[in-house]
Amino acid sequence: MKRLCLYFLVVFIAPIVSPWRECFSQTEDWRNIKTGRVIPDESYSDQPYILNTDDGAWLSVLTTGTGHEGSSGQHLIAQRSWDKGKTWVDRVAIEPVDGPEASYSVLLKAPGGRIFVFYNYNTDNARWVKGDPAYYKDGKVKRVDTQGYYVFKYSDDNGKTWSAKRCPVPVRLFDIDKRNPYKGAIRYFWNVGKPFIFQEKVYVPLHKVGGFGAGFITSSEGVLLCSDNLLTVNDPARAFWSTLPEGETGLRAPTGGGPVSEEQSMVVLSDGSFFCVYRTIDGYPAFSYSRDRGHTWDAPQYMRFAGGRLMKHPRAANFVWKCENGKYLYWFHNHGGRLIGENPHRTSIAYDDRNPAWVCGGEEIDSPIGKVIRWSEPEILLYDEDPVIRISYPDLIEDKGNYYISETQKDIARVHLIDKTLLEGLWHQFITSSRCDKNILLDWENKADKNTVTAVAPGLPALYVVDRKKVEQPGAHLNNGFTIEFSLKTGKWLPGQNLLNATDGSGKGWKIRMGENRTVELIMNDGQTEAVWESTPGILSTDKDHYVSIIVDGGPNIICFVIDGVLDDGGNYRQFGWGRFSPYFKSVNAAKNINILGDKIERLTIYGEALTVSEAVGNFRHYAKSRL
Length: 628
Fold this sequence. Notes:
Helix content: under 10%
Largest sheet: 7 strands, antiparallel
Radius of gyration: 27 Å
Low-confidence stretches: 1-24
């Protein structure tokens, strides 16, 4: 009778209970932007910047309106939160909806508590400006939010009310202004860069524009507005302003780059140097240092990781922040390269693919010319389940040891509590050599000295299952993942040969095989859907051993390769080093055993979760140290 009951449980009950257990294991992924707290708007929502006020509230100012970006009625609103963005109160229009366009605000809090908001203002209420006649009918650009005057207002009650007076900021004429259709009589510009204070002077970035056409802005460069008395003058409207750098040329792309250099973001290093990063249409972000408070700048270069390889980035905001602990964070999108820079339509196509958002950690090191920042390998910070949704214009808020990031999809703005362990992992990448021991499902080492060996295949977490708790039984994303790590021996390369094979006779399961041009390929098959992603040619060589981490992340549905502690970013071969798989991919569980090519694989570790890149870096360092 007991045997009969056991048979009934195994054959009839277990298949029902197991999916329920998978469904109940679903966890919320804080990186999914839909888990954030919404910042109210009127429809369009841009640059949701936030600061801590002296009365303990958060103040947010954003550009909003009932139409699309650049539509008539675009204006600024301010609102406050006492509960870290859960609810918002004290909403006020800094500029009215029925006035000229007011756009692209940035905030600055003075030491005494006064708050300034700087923004574009279409003071003359122009309804069109001149653009490229080959692109705009009659040469008229009806979007008028990126010209006019740069102005500011201020608040002395923590953002609840704002000055009636609107103060213009005089901006010196540069060569790019003189070459616009109005010879500088009308200026084209905007700003997303956060102001800062250094040695009692106020600095505000500004992005000058040369013209409008394909891709909207056809040329741009960055400058820095400086006031040495805004914090002390009785009437802020009487503050003195200078425009930096010296001369008539702002921050541009590196030599040989394109005409677009914009959205400059700046921080001050511990030795007083200014660091600036900005977007281009070259496929790479640019940066420069100033050692004399913005008067002159080093020759611009393209951003690089600590190891020396170029960072990739499209035409999207890429921001740098200095944290209270003295470390740095850098927001970017980790794709691009020459496949954007060499595209004939790069001014337009480079706006795409702002999802997910990635982040690097930075720390200061000494150089012969002063302090510089070295940057870690990146991590996915935020994502949307829809891969074409764009995420941009973030802000960092630190509050009582916690980190928050705001962002916008141009329709919904949100603020997110960030898991600080992710950020701490980035900052520790340069010294970590510890192995991650959490959630190990298989830890195998080849001691048999055979060419082909086997290991029992562990059950890997399901990615998408039937939600049997609901009447209609829809699918449910579990936000699960897994990581496969192995050491790869040097030697002959045979494309198509399996290194690891955990598939059944139908092809369901997973395997890793040698690809063309010395790549490794991950193949996943759930019986209905197959996903394939391979490493970039040129990374693996046949004259040295390698340590490979393949991270399958079921949150954003992304596969990443980390090889010898370096995230594969596609190099010059691909715009993307990371690949997507179907959000409806179910499970790779199939075969009972893993067939292992023993003369190539020395060690194999399988984790029941998607490791962070920082954890993969630590695992590589631990492996390399064990071989010394």
